[in-house]
Amino acid sequence: MRRMLLSHAPIAAAVLLAATAILGLVAHRTAWAQTSAVEVLETQAIQSEAGGETRGRRRNQQNQQPASPRTAKADLERAAQDAASNFISQVEQLSFDIKLLLKLLLLFVILWMWVSATDWVNRDAQIYKLGHMKWNAIVFFPFAIVALLLVFLPLHSLIRAPIMFVVFLATWIPYVLVHNKGVEPHRTVLTGSWWRYVMASLASKVGLKVSADRKAEYEKGAPVELFAMGAEDVTTDNANLLSARNSPGYVLVKDLIVDMVRRRSERVLLDFTQQAVNVRLEIDGVWHNGEARDRESSDVMLAVMKTLANMGVKERRKKQRGQFGAKYEDHSFLCPVTSKGVATGEQVVVSLRGEQQHFDSYAALGMREGLQNQWSELMASDVGVLIFSTMPGGGLTTITNVSLEETDRLMRDFVAIEEVNHREAEIQNIEVHTFDASAGETPATLMPKLIRSYPNVYVCRDLVNIESARLLFNEVNDDRLVVTSIRAKDTAEALLRVLQMKVPAEEFVPVVKAVLYQRLIRTLCPDCKVGYTPPPDVLKKLGIPAGKVEQLFRPPKPEEIDKPCRSCQGMGYKGRTGIFELLVINDQIREILVKQPKLDLLKKAARASHQRLLQEEGIVLVAKGMTSIPELMRVLKQ
Ligand SMILES: [Zn+2]
Predict the structure, then answer these.
(1) Cα 556 to ligand 1 centre (Å)
(2) Ligand 1 center–CA 517 separation, angstroms
(3) Phi, psi of 515 (to 5 degrees)
(4) CA of 575 to the centre of ligand 1 (A)
(5) Contact 279, 292 (CB under 8 A)
(6) I want to staple 632 with a disulfide (CB 3.0 to 4.6 A). Which of 50, 298, 533, 618 is the partner?
(7) Ligand 1 centroid – CA 442 distance (Å)
(8) How far is CA 295 from CA 277, 278, 342, 343, 347, in A?
């Protein structure tokens, strides 16, 4: 239906064009034939009058051969004159043809403009729902009728053409005005930018390269697509998106996303003060100062982000949360935004969450082989409590997921207990049961049912409360394995944190089997790291035997850099890897946990059990040239 509607006007117009053109041509031909016959006769008469004598003479001369040199010269002159007069008469006829051609060309140009305009109005009026039937009639009939009338009226074509042109404009311009009122600036017609675009397009057709950039403001800049999110319904999201696109801040948000992606920044902090906006970027878990921005453009940019995230644009004091979406170079990102008023102004954090980098093995996490074997064995055990621990943002989900993926889940029944609004990534052969925290539920709510299903392994990443912890730990007595996790600074602290939940030591201590702790350390950029010979005392401090390592590595110093390394954007580091600490609970540690649960005592006992500390794991990476000493110091200080 739509296709038919879209195409019927141009066809009708084309037919009319052809008919008019043929009629016009016939009418002109008749008129021309009459005129030219008269003119040719006139020309012939003049020619015969002027040329009669010449021809007579020529005939005489032809008879008087051989001619003298003088007469031969005169003959040549006459022949030249003859040729010249012939040429002039031909040109006269030719110029007459050009006049006719010009008339037809003019007619054709006007008709072509009208046909194109009619076709465009027909399609455009349907696209923008401006009443295409009405506009088709307005643009089509007056011109068609006038054009047909003109063919039969004995008027000079110099009058015909302007009449047709005026009728064309009078019927087309009203539509253009209606169209321009209802569309975005880049879709207007007959405006300055439209003319530039038309001229540039014409120029490009004859091989000239002129920028024919006729994009909407929001389409300019980086090739990023932004999405509004967070409103109650799609209509509001769409309205938010349109309103955001109308702001000059839209392009600035796109630029911000590109900047974050290029720098591999996962978060940006915008600190709005009276004078300026200070920018800080988090890259590989480390905050770096960015270039400060001016207040005016940053305000516009922030308004766009808040609009996209359906947050209050004018609210600059209360804490707000929201998120919007972005797509860049085939990667989709979720961009959570938080804003809150502070003493100096407003602080805004924009995060960039891309598709999670998928780690599928212990090796990919950076775990050395010996530890992999040791931990795999523990994960395969039938009884006990295993604890994962990291700092906040330290990759707790990843290390837990990889461990579960690497563990055989076919021979044992795994159940996972998760909060309904905080679901983890699905892992094959693990049956997930959810509780609803908003309804006052905890893992304990699910336990009676789960106990009756006799699983082999419980995966409860967040113990939530003492009651849930006790029920789970009690299951270990029935030969079950419990896998859980907790945030802490190291293995010893992780144990203490469980006890701090007020779980009775006699219920937890006998069943806890091991704690695996992970900390993330930045790896040196392989493209710009600088090797150096370490002084013997440094090696001694690191506990590296003399002669074992000839070279250590560090990031380049600012004075050593000609231009920033493209691989790491001049950071010197690129990506992160894990360093691990595994604490297998022995009798000595159990005794401390029950009698004197203190951090230093636990650490001492851990070292005595030949546990490899984070520091030692880190030194291995330093010796391998994968990271630097300052980076290890930074990570250990956390
Ligand atoms: Zn580099």
Answers:
(1) 8
(2) 29
(3) -125, 130
(4) 11
(5) yes
(6) 618
(7) 47
(8) 6, 9, 16, 17, 13
Token pair 């209360």 is found at 318
Contact (CB, 8 A) for 600 and 505: no
CA 214 – CA 619 distance, rounded (Å): 57
Assigned CATH for 224-351? 3.30.450.90
Q: Report how far residue 586's alpha carbon sits from residue 509's, in angstroms, rounded to the nearest whole number.
A: 10
Ligand 1 centre from 619 Cα, in Å? 21
What would the pLDDT profile of 321-336 be if each residue is shown by its tens digit? 999 999 998 899 999 9
Exposed / middle / buried, residue 139 (Cβ in 10 Å: 0-12, 13-18, 19+): buried
> In angstroms, what is the span from residue 267 Cα to ligand 1's centroid?
20
Q: What is the pLDDT of residues 615-634, one digit of tens each?
A: 889 999 999 999 999 999 99
Distance in angstroms (rounded) separating the CA atoms of residues 23 and 496: 100
Residue closest to 189 by CA, chosen among 104, 245, 113, 252? 113
* Structure confidence by residue, pLDDT tens digits, 272-313: 999 999 999 999 989 999 999 999 999 999 999 999 999 999
DSSP string of 210-269, one letter each residue: -------GGGSSSSEEEE---SSSHHHHHHHHHHHHTSTHHHHHHHHHHHHHHTTEEEEE
Stated pTM of the model? 0.65
Q: Please give the CATH architecture assigned to the domain spanning 362-637.
A: 3-Layer(aba) Sandwich (3.40)
CA 574–ligand 1 middle distance (angstroms):
7
Outline where 289-395 has alpha helix (H): 295-308, 362-365, 369-379
| Ligand 1 centre distance from Cα of residue 562 (Å) | 12
DSSP string for residues in 155-224: --HHHHHHHHHHHHHHHHHHHHHHHHHHS-GGG-SSSHHHHHHHHHHHHHHTT---------GGGSSSSE
The count of other CB atoms within 10 Å of the CB of residue 572 is 22
Cα 277 to ligand 1 centre (Å): 28
Separation of CA 568 and ligand 1 centre (Å) = 4
The verdict on whether omega for the bond into residue 630 sits within 30 degrees of 0, i.e. cis, is no
Residue 22 has pLDDT above 50, yes or no: yes
